[in-house]
């Protein structure tokens, strides 16, 4: 999970079986925060990608 902007980013790695649910909840939180701050969709990044790592 990458957080930040184009200049500064922080990468956080988490392992869970519920990655899609976590992703959905984070997207909801970001949308609520953007609406609360009055940020329009074109002014802020809105992509969130969680990748699945499968151990063998």
UniProtKB/TrEMBL annotation:
<feature type="region of interest" description="Disordered">
    <location>
        <begin position="37"/>
        <end position="56"/>
    </location>
</feature>
<protein>
    <submittedName>
        <fullName>Uncharacterized protein</fullName>
    </submittedName>
</protein>
<dbReference type="InterPro" id="IPR011993">
    <property type="entry name" value="PH-like_dom_sf"/>
</dbReference>
<feature type="compositionally biased region" description="Basic and acidic residues">
    <location>
        <begin position="44"/>
        <end position="56"/>
    </location>
</feature>
